[in-house]
Amino acid sequence: MNTINAAIVGASGYTGAELVRLLINHPNVTITAMTADRKAGMRMADVFPHLGGLNLPDLVTMDNVDWSNIDVCFCCLPHGTTQEFIASLPQNVRIVDLSADFRLKDIEEYRKWYGDKHRAPELQKEAVYGLTEIKRDEIAKARLVANPGCYPTSAQLPLIPLLKEKKIGTQGIIIDSKSGVTGAGRAPKEGTLFCEVSDAIHAYGVGTHRHGPEIEQGLSEAAGENIFVSFTPHLMPMNRGILSTIYVTLADNVSVNDIRTSLQNTYANEPFVRVVEEGNSPATRHVRGSNYCLIGVFADRTPGRAIIVCVEDNVVKGASGQAVQNMNVMFGFEETAGLTQQPMFP
Ligand SMILES: NC(=O)C1=CN([C@@H]2O[C@H](COP(=O)(O)OP(=O)(O)OC[C@H]3O[C@@H](n4cnc5c(N)ncnc54)[C@H](OP(=O)(O)O)[C@@H]3O)[C@@H](O)[C@H]2O)C=CC1
Ligand SMILES: CC(=O)N[C@@H](CCC(=O)OP(=O)(O)O)C(=O)O
């Protein structure tokens, strides 16, 4: 069997730990290197006791990795820290970058939203946006895949097919998203303290969140014209999960049933994206711990409008699961390898 060696850079964070959970059961992958910053020098079992007993390499700093036998690097670093590191990797290493550093095609947009000049513009040109169901053919050939953000995955999977098929209007798209706190990463910050997030919900980045332009980039490409969306994320007192409620205008002579059928047809042969039965409302607990994305389609009481509800696990389909799915496509493995866990319900 074809087997490859994987490095996880930033393995002591939430997405890194999730990659270990998924890859440890992958038939074609051996984890041969794992890095950390503050936690370098520690054993994975000491950072994450649930990942003990798995014969994993110890956590080292990035400059202590021997890249000579590594085939794929999963890069789980904070955005802004990834560009120079990826540029320094040997050419034979293929990369799935979970950060936002290579997602925006226009480096001026990157500067505007991330507040810094892009430091690897040549690499940016070759990066392929890793929304697997939409970009599969390009991902198969890519050396560098920019894994999508968690909110953009939940917004683009339902909206891209509908815009491509001109089933919905290009104006007035509203994306109201809620996320679990793991979306903010494991590094301590005031905003993710228990007292700040428990027993309440709040909107943040209102009108200014950096996932707005990432969503618009994908939707504009699908529609063939510039699209602007209203996108508001909310932080929920839960560990995992994203639920996006999306409000759209139906195109002329298109019904709610038409858009449900259109999404059902688009995703009929996709292992991880499913349109739920009419009347069912998908919940984050229906995808928890899995790589699935569930989509529900409803009529709005406002004539000519529809409401789409999309759920995913932000750490799986919104990050590490989609990263493994992309790696499977890049190396010609079974696309579902390592990803067959059913959701953990309730
Ligand atoms: N969490 C999520 O749901 C999602 C996250 N992402 C993106 O994935 C990336 C990783 O996220 P997540 O795992 O949540 O983040 P965490 O904060 O949980 O983990 C970050 C990791 O990077 C390491 N690290 C931090 N700073 C540096 C540095 N300067 N040099 C080297 N290593 C460093 C940390 O090491 P140490 O702990 O030892 O300091 C840790 O291993 C981010 O870019 C995030 O935006 C994307 C989609 C969803
Ligand atoms: C709850 C929470 O804080 N979520 C993060 C997004 C997580 C994600 O997808 O982030 P990247 O684009 O950084 O990869 C945020 O709003 O910044």
UniProtKB/TrEMBL annotation:
Gene this protein is translated from: argC
UniProt-listed GO biological process terms: L-arginine biosynthetic process
Enzyme class, broadest EC rank: oxidoreductase
Keywords: Amino-acid biosynthesis, Arginine biosynthesis, Cytoplasm, NADP, Oxidoreductase
Role according to the record: Catalyzes the NADPH-dependent reduction of N-acetyl-5-glutamyl phosphate to yield N-acetyl-L-glutamate 5-semialdehyde.
Pathway assigned to this chain's UniProt record: Amino-acid biosynthesis; L-arginine biosynthesis; N(2)-acetyl-L-ornithine from L-glutamate: step 3/4
Annotated protein name in UniProt: N-acetyl-gamma-glutamyl-phosphate reductase
This enzyme's EC code(s): 1.2.1.38
Active-site residues from the entry: 150
Compartment(s) where it occurs, according to its Swiss-Prot or TrEMBL record: Cytoplasm
Record field: catalytic activity: N-acetyl-L-glutamate 5-semialdehyde + phosphate + NADP(+) = N-acetyl-L-glutamyl 5-phosphate + NADPH + H(+)
GO MF entries: N-acetyl-gamma-glutamyl-phosphate reductase activity; NAD binding; NADP+ binding
Pfam families documented for this protein: Semialdhyde_dh, Semialdhyde_dhC_1
